[in-house]
Write a structure and sequence with these properties.
The protein is an alpha/beta fold and 436 residues long. It has two domains: 114 residues, Urease, subunit C, domain 1 (Roll), CATH 2.30.40.10; 282 residues, Metal-dependent hydrolases (TIM Barrel), CATH 3.20.20. It is built from 16 helices and 16 strands. Strands 1, 2, 3, 4, 5, 14, 15 and 16 form an eight-stranded mixed sheet that branches. Strands 6-7-8-9 form a four-stranded parallel sheet. A four-stranded parallel sheet has the order 10-11-12-13. Strand 8, helix 5 and strand 9 form a beta-alpha-beta unit. Helix 3 packs across helix 16, helix 12 packs across helix 15 and helix 13 crosses helix 15. The chain is globular and about 65 Å long. The relative contact order is 0.16.
Length: 436
């Protein structure tokens, strides 16, 4: 059983008591795939080295050790469509550019796009992600090989539900031997999936023990469509159909009124806030501060690298905080620590983790953590390390990434991966699809 000691770090555990310091100088010990302890007591570190003579020591002076980031909604394989269709209204974007492109992709090309997406996320300190796409069973091998943690949601429209249900079964079977990977069912949205097929998806999820994810209340066009067809809001429709509970991830939720927010909180739904995608597509500013104040579990995500155009969670944190302060005209809302919590501890709920098992640094938690180099001009001086990370941090500041007790990124390198070759294959695939 491998052991590690991340020593003399600035530790941000994300699970301390309200009156406890949010960061302290100390060490994090890892045994197997779990955190053994987190402490400022150097005598514990000395004792751990004595009892674990083969322990690998990681010198973290001038560096932060914190939980890995959790991206709770993305379409990682859409890296192949990065910058393919920009500055276009949503429905034109979907109908004339995105869906035709996706129709021409092969399963191998989807797996290739997923590979690039995971590489981007790992190098940016993302240790877990929630995906929503097609051919997810083909991506299980990619996730397992690259070492990240993932919840793979098999997405469908009315015309593709049978394919998605089969994909979900295959994904669940393929992931059964890897504890880092889970499957989910993912109806696209209330405006693209009928009531009957929304219910079918939920029943399937319950029968197979799977979570459900869906785009909801994303745009004003969606709001108008659902109101005209069903006489209610998207959240009210999903609640009426029984789709909302503690195993539901609702992405976007930009247009949610007080009643919708109350429903989301009461049902225990996890909301995935995709601020940069919302801004780019001009969907609107989600009432995140209100949702948080009213007890909704809000997490952070990038959405796909075609509507964003990247998978950078550091940019999401900064944008989420700044946009809420602007849209509410209140500089006090969504402070830095709350945003960091959304990107870590809150995100663990979307992954289906037990309380305190993921998104935190504490004894017994899964060993998913990142090391960030503070020796950068944009991170100095350090008055408040949490503020520095949320408001100044960049993906390139991440130096080391551990998932499930295994180092998957060291000195910003992913072992055994030829990035130049990957980029060539990605470009070739994108060119083929565009010309098809």
């Amino acid at each position: 059983m491998k052991s590690f000691l991340f020593q003399q770090a600035t530790v941000i555990p994300m699970c301390g008591a309200e009156d406890a310091p949010r960061a302290f100088t100390g060490s994090v010990a890892v045994e197997g795939n779990r955190i053994a302890w987190v402490s400022a007591d150097e005598t514990l570190a000395h004792a751990f080295l004595q009892t674990h003579p083969d322990c690998r020591v990681v010198d973290c002076r001038g560096k932060v050790v914190m939980p890995g980031l959790i991206n709770t909604h993305c379409h990682a394989a859409m890296t192949l469509q990065r910058s393919h269709a920009d500055d276009i209204a949503l429905m034109e974007w979907l109908n004339d550019y995105i869906w035709p492109f996706e129709a021409k992709q092969t399963a191998d090309e989807i797996a290739l796009g997923m590979t690039l997406g995971i590489v981007e996320m790992l190098l940016g300190g993302v240790t877990s992600f929630v995906d929503m796409y097609f051919q997810e069973h083909r991506c299980v091998e990619v996730v397992e090989r690259l070492g990240i943690r993932a919840l793979l949601g098999c997405s469908y429209f009315d015309h593709s539900i049978e394919i998605a249900l089969a994909d979900a079964r295959k994904t669940q079977e393929a992931a059964a031997s890897c504890s880092r990977i889970g499957a989910a069912i993912a109806p696209h949205a209330p405006y693209t999936v009928s009531e009957e097929n929304l219910v079918r998806g939920k029943r399937f999820a319950e029968e197979h023990g799977l979570p459900l994810m869906i785009h909801a209340a994303e745009t004003q066009d969606e709001m108008r469509y659902v109101r005209e067809k069903y006489g209610c809001t998207p959240v009210q429709l999903l609640d009426r159909l029984g789709l909302l509970d503690e195993r539901t991830i609702a992405a976007h939720c930009v247009w949610v009124d007080a009643e919708d927010r109350r429903t989301l909180a009461e049902r225990g739904v996890t909301v995935s806030h995709n601020v940069q995608s919302n801004m780019k597509i001009s969907s609107g500013a989600a009432p995140v501060a209100a949702m948080v104040a009213e007890g909704v579990t809000v997490t952070l995500a990038t959405d796909g690298p075609c509507s964003n155009n990247d998978l950078d969670m550091w940019e999401e944190m900064r944008s989420a905080a700044f946009l809420q302060k602007l849209s509410t005209a209140n500089p006090l809302v969504l402070p830095a620590y709350e945003v960091l919590k959304m990107a870590t501890a809150n995100g663990a709920r979307a992954m289906g983790a037990a309380e305190g098992e993921l998104g935190v640094l504490r004894a017994g938690a899964l060993a998913d953590l990142i090391v960030i180099d503070l020796q950068k001009p944009h991170l100095q001086p350090v008055h408040d390390v949490v503020s520095n990370l949320v408001y100044c941090g960049k993906a390139s500041d991440v130096e080391t990434v551990m998932v499930d007790g295994r180092l998957v990124v060291e000195n910003r390198q992913i072992a055994g991966l030829d990035l130049a070759d990957l980029y060539c294959r990605v470009q070739a695939a994108a060119d083929r699809i565009k010309q098809a």
